[in-house]
Amino acid sequence: MKRRATLIPGDGIGPEITAATLRVLAAAGAEFEWDEQLAGMAAMEESGTPLPDATLESLRQTQLGLKGPLTTPVGGGFRSINVALRKEFDLYANVRPAKTIVPGGRYENVDIVLVRENTEGLYSGFEGIIGIGGDPRAMAQSVAYTTRVGRERIARYAFEYAVSHGRKKVTIVHKANILKALTGLFLEVSQGVAREFAGRVVADDIIVDACAMKLVLDPAQFDMIVTTNMFGDILSDEIAGLVGGLGLAPGANIGSKCALFEAVHGSAPDIAGKGVANPSALILAGCMMLDHVGEPSRADRVRKALEQVIRDDNVRTPDLKGHATTMGFADAVCRRLG
Questions:
Q1: E strands of 105-243, at which residues?
Q2: 65 pairs with which residues across the strands?
Q3: What is the mean pLDDT of the chain?
Q4: Which of 20, 199, 244, 321 is deepest in the core (most CB within 10 A)?
Q5: Residue of 175, 291, 319, 331 with catalytic role
Q6: How far apart are CA 151 and CA 183, in angstroms?
Q7: Does residue 76 surpass a pLDDT of 60?
Q8: Known catalytic residue at 35
Q9: Across-strand partners of 26?
């Protein structure tokens, strides 16, 4: 029986890498009944809004989605569509795995999963412009907040993920030496959750700037990271850079009632339509989606095939210093799947 899921191809290179991903998932025998919907600039052009009600309703019904990169319209008061989706469906956990695939780089054995709180902190959207005297834009302010409930559920998600995926250590990343209230509460609550997993998962903590430095000096010392919204946004891109860039970086946004999987890179309008975009990030996001619906063996087959295509067959898109087209790469993965 096919599982229903919402499909949002996205903008720019989104439709190209989405088509490639669907080809690979079909070759692996994954059975989804896709409800294709629009968001971003494609939706704006068709319906006048970057996030149509039909798209939201589809996700409410399927509770499962695969999403290409989106472009948020400039001006007009539009907030980030990705942030809006996270808020709408309370997708509180952002999961960003990074693993070395391309051989010959500086780091050969990176295998890190970062879990980022996705709905609170500085990205919560409480901001504005304040006029002072005769200057209507004299001051800008953004308000960050955190809740004990929000901190506990993201910490618990990270440690439960570690147990279920055979991970040995979770590093809590914070800035409690300066942001004593905001990230102090995060550290306190996370350490409390960590004590519940003593003997099963090792826990330590580190200040965010020290973490950023140690990641580039020796990423092998990290297994899993759990951190706040903004710190996770920055560190996850840094970690992606350790393994070859955002073209290899999938992401999952998990809530209690909905899960949305995505390529975390942008829509790259400069190469849209040229057939050279790397579909790996979205293919790997599809693997995370298969894991989520209880098909880890199928997901592992796709991951193995993709790695073999890059490592052994040397079939790579231009961002990985190769010459393969988007669909050429997908076809190579399909051949490996047999």
A1: 111-117, 121-132, 135-145, 169-174, 202-207, 224-227
A2: 6, 260
A3: 95
A4: 20
A5: 175
A6: 10
A7: no
A8: no
A9: none
Domains and CATH numbers, the chain: 1-102+244-338 (3.40.718.10)
- Among 180, 184, 186, smallest CA distance to 154 is for 186
End-to-end Cα separation, the chain, in angstroms: 22
102 within 8 A of 306, measured Cβ to Cβ: no
Give catalytic status of residue 157 as yes or no.
Answer: no
Catalytic residue among 233, 291, 319, 331: 233
The number of CA neighbours under 13 Å toward the Cβ of 259 is: 16
175 is catalytic: yes
Mean pLDDT for the stretch of residues 70-95: 85
Tell me whether residue 233 is one of the annotated catalytic residues. Answer: yes
Band of pLDDT at residue 78, cut at 50, 70 and 90: low
At residue 105, the pLDDT reads 77
